[in-house]
Amino acid sequence: MEINGVPLHPLVVHAAVVLTPVAGLVAVGYAVPSWRDRLRWPLVVLAVLAAAAVWVAYLSGENLRTDRFGAVTGTLADRIADHETWAKRLRIGASVFAVVALAAAWFHGRTGATRAVLTLLTVVAGLVTLVLVVLTGDAGAQATWRID
Q1: CA separation for the pair 130, 16 (Å, rounded)
Q2: Residue partners of 141: CB distance under 8 A and separation at least 6
Q3: CB-CB contact of 27 with 123 (8 Å)
Q4: Which residues, given as ranges, of the chain have pLDDT below 70?
Q5: pLDDT score for 109
Q6: Closest Cα to residue 124, out of 147, 104, 138, 144?
Q7: Which helix (H) or strand (E) covers residue 95, if one does?
Q8: Whole-number pLDDT of residue 58
Q9: What whole-number distance in Å separates Cα of residue 74 and Cα of residue 79?
Q10: If phi over 0 gives left and psi between -120 and 50 gives alpha, with beta otherwise, what is residue 5?
Q11: What local confidence, expressed as pLDDT, does residue 4 receive?
Q12: Cα 78 to the chain's mean position, in Å?
């Protein structure tokens, strides 16, 4: 999993780090009734692309750990394990967010409780995924750049 000799993980992580927060913010905007019609499809596209980017980042990270960091011990190993734990949570969160966004778009025409619940779930899933991508990214940065 390399491109021109560079591991795929640090390259694809940038897509996840950009798309996921943007999708989370669009989910918050989706809660505004006057914006809902315009944001329905951008939300779905962004949530699905973000989930795909998170999955590729996760899988390429697994490969990177095995290929280059399998024998690492000590503090660095602990930091990598912490990053991996957050990445597992993010993978689940981004997947749930994409499914919820798809459901919200599918049932977009509904009114009443169905619409209110789906809108609330969309916003919550977007915000949770936004927090998870920040925590995962921070753990990855700590593993990569912290020296002590």
Answers
A1: 11
A2: none
A3: yes
A4: none
A5: 86
A6: 104
A7: helix 74-106
A8: 96
A9: 9
A10: left
A11: 87
A12: 22
